[in-house]
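Contributing new records

If you add data, match the layout below exactly. Sequence lines come first and carry their own label; structure lines follow with theirs. Keep one chain per record. Anything else will be rejected by the validation script.
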Amino acid sequence: MAPHSDVEGHHLEYVLTCEDYVAFNVHAATTLAETRRQLFQYRVGGALGLALLVVILDVTTRGDGLAWALVLAAIPAALWWGLSPQLMQRSMRRTLARIADTSGLGHVGPTSLRLDARGVHEECGGVATSAEWAEILRVDETAEHGFIFIGPMAAFIVPKTIGIQADAFLSTLRARLSSEQERPAR
């Protein structure tokens, strides 16, 4: 199915893939406050653990003294600190890709996403999902996707590989969200 968008940016048609769901899950997991807190603890714990191991090994085997052992320990600790976020994201992406290949992460295939006066509506794989404007929590974008969050781990996925239609759709969506938020409560 070729990507399609109406003139006003209120309707998109595209194909959702397993890779789109992997990208969403990685993005959602790494932007959740609890996950960021856990990743930070993992970074700190790993760096301190490596530093302690190097200090113990250096002092007991080489006997260079504590000051030199601390300097030496800073190297693997810094490497861990710098590389662990990329390693964790790579590991998460690989695990999610395996899940997507075996049991799936969501409905894939031809997808229709449209905006109207009530909210956002998606049809994919015979399943229809709708969210009213008030139910949209946030709209995030990466270089490859737009994510319209309707829950902490639930979103409509807009792949930017479909071209400028995705950007136009997301701009229209943001404008509608702004106008909905400015309306007085009834």
